[in-house]
Specification:
mainly alpha, single chain, 5 helices, two-stranded antiparallel ribbon
Amino acid sequence: MRSLSALVLTLPLGGCWIDAAIGPAAVVSGTSVILIGRTPVDAVATLATGRDCSVVNRERRLPWCLEPPAPPPPTPFCTPSLGRVDCWTVPPPGAPLRGVADPPRAPAPPTETGPRRGLDILLGGVSP
């Protein structure tokens, strides 16, 4: 702590370079608050702690670092059943089922079977 305070006290002794360094630092901090909602120091603290650290939180009279929000609950997946609708938070296993609000599926594209494919095989154009 003592060495940190000694370092801070020596900063004004730098003379003109300190004025030249304040301008770009203020621009970077102000721009980052506008773009990502936190200063570069806040971004490093957020990465280090895994919490949402921002001076904007302090301005709103909240703690500097907030716990990340909980993930939203899963959306229910509903399928038509006999005379009713069944809903799950996880789709049932098996073939993909059509949801209640889903549009009907498009038919599968035709495969190349039939006389043309047989003719190509006979003529040596396509191998099976």
